[in-house]
User: Fold this.
Amino acid sequence: MMAVDCWTLWVSLVLGATAVFILWWRRYVGVFAHRRVPYVTPLPVVGNMLDVVFCRKSMPDILNDLYQKLDPHPYAGLFSFTIPVLLIRDPELIRAITVKDFDHFTDHMNFINAEKSNPLSQKMLVALKGKEWHDMRITLSPAFTTMKIKNMFMLITDIGQQVVAYLEKRTSDFDVSAGNENLLVLEMKDFFTRITNDVIATTAFGIKVDSLSEPDNLFYRMGRDLTAVRVIVGIGYTLFPKLMQLLGIPFMDRTATEFFKSTVIETIETREKQGIVRPDVIHLLMQARRGELRSEEAGKDGSTEGKGKRLTNDDIAAQAILFFFGGFDTVSTLMTFCSYLLATHEDVQRRLQQEVDDVMKKNRGKPDYEQVMACQYLDMVISAQRFALMETKVVLLYLVSRFSFHVVAKTPVPLQIQPNNLTLSIKGGAWVGIRRRS
Ligand code: HEM
Assistant:
């Protein structure tokens, strides 16, 4: 009798657990199935991200594989762990969502803002939802028209020249006619990360630093601490934000956040007191707060003019810190891949240098915004977000006008993407040789 009861109990438990699992599973995949959206069958908990967990593939490679697998669907579903994500494949749909109808797609994924106890991260544009995002976006948009970005060109030109001066010094002991074994060998991600740091320092925070010549400067150290979100913390905050907060694990380094916040607030106060005007983001945001911004190209590039919201000092600091997150790793990754690919494709580098030499000669080594933007081959080598595009073009232009990139023994060829990384990076490091041009 006891044996039968025990048997019945086990069968009921197994049946119950199976029923719960089936119900949960139907809800899990039902997000897409009920809407007749094609989707890639997920695994429980890890979704379609098993390779991330086992560090077998990088996130960009996983997304690329899923993109190929979902051909020819214009859009399809996948699971980033337990979070359902709609992958948009059709370029026209992407354009509609990100440009034409961008104001209908107000909410970003909870990420930077997942740490609710950090008041500054809650004020960042990417953190805001619905109408709040819309109002902030309308307030900020006139600050980022082509005209306004163009005003920051000279600040980036200064950085381009600073980089050239640094490399001139470092390469002066190397013979320009020596073979590829006698070159200055640099890890380009580290090199370009220092440059994008300096560009953000000058354009977003109004501070001039040289992180190549002064590798340990405070601004660079704080920027590194701010943006170095460990993969495990990132995944933790995506999946279990409450638990992460309960455990007291911060998403953003508090000391670094406070450093940047006080830097911005002090800068605003000094500028207001002394009437300082500098063509940078802080100035634009201060103008936005005073309602002085007129969007020359309202509507043309997704920017609209309208009644925005009144910005506080904290709002301004939050956006400047967000630009650090937005423009630090993205642009240095772009520049790193450019230098690696130029080193491995000498014919492309030669053609680019012909164009750059020409523009430099015609403009006495200091072309203006229009002249850099008119470099067609440079435009073919890079194509990215507007500010990133200007930044990368200026830095690359100054670099290739005086130096060449070369494959050296340490350069990992063929290129493989680092698997255990959420962002795009080269396996083995982007080691490239640099030689002064004769
Ligand atoms: C190659 C360079 C870049 C790439 C590939 C890139 C990519 C992206 C993507 C995919 C998003 C949308 C994220 C989402 O929907 O959650 C985004 C948003 C954003 N990015 Fe970038 N970005 C780049 C450079 C920059 C730079 C240089 C800055 C600032 C200086 C920046 C600031 C921002 C901001 C503020 C947002 C949020 C916009 C909003 O909520 O309306 N990005 N970026």
The radius of gyration is 25 Å. The beta strands are 75-80, 83-88, 184-187, 403-406, 431-436. The first strand starts at residue 75 and ends at 80. Residues 2-102 form one domain.
